[in-house]
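Residues determine shape. We examine one folded chain.
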Amino acid sequence: MNEFILHHQLPLDGVPAYGFGRCDCAGCAPRQPARRLFTGLLGLGALGVAAPALAREGVEVGEKSWATKLVSAEQVETAAAQQYAQTMRQAAQQRALAPANHPQVIRLRAIAQRIIPFALPWNPRAQGWKWEINLIGSAQLNAYCMPGGKIAFYYGILEKLQLSDDEVAMIMGHEVAHALREHARERMGKGAATRLGAGLISGLLGLGNVGDAVVNIGAQLATLKFGREDETEADLVGMELAARAGYNPAAGVSLWQKMGQASSGAPPQWLSTHPAGTTRIKDIEANLPKVQGLYERAPKPAERFEPAPPLKSRSAN
């Protein structure tokens, strides 16, 4: 059996340019999003837990963007699944894909199993997603959830930041929120609208030609990044998902404090173009009262996991 090892540099095809904390908007002023109301594993049915009917308690982020309607959800999810599978195959070939019995994989999947049942009220499509959660042996501080519920954590973010379960849940909730709110699909739709022109789209009504403008969806998934509005929305929705799952949403504060410490000196890629952690901490603190009751009433995890220990490492050839 191949040993799971840590790579300091691990180039993989199909990894999206977006990831935890990345953003394409340098120097954005802090603001709340104005457009919206309120991540081999399991589908919702396989969990044996039905998502409960939720009263509208929690964060408010507005309706989903009109731009999501311009691109086929099925095509985006299919392309994401193909890219994710390719990435996992490459990671496995380089002994960088953690086995199912690895303690940190067990940890990630246990946290996901608590979060996923609360996804459906945010996006009915989530009921049919084939959720996957995997761990990649890379020293990078990164995690992502591709459309359709394809989640990946990098070992570096678990080990270097010594994340607690609550902090892991905040990251996972954030990334799952991107998929639920279909931010990738929205970005593609806006790009297509820009290329076609708003006037032409208004005249088409049926929007048939918009689909023609969204070519090579896989390539777009690999290069697009989310804007600050998307990141702020994912922070808030993710905080609510974590709280409903029984994880302390206040962990978002300690998470971003750790991020700030890790970025001293030359900032890592995921933080280089993103609003300061202090801004995010203020946003989280301002919204904690909206989800605190959800957390207090939620059943808490019966098991807590140890932070990730150092892995045997190997530099890339």
About this structure: DSSP finds 13 helices and five strands in the chain. The longest strand covers residues 132-136.
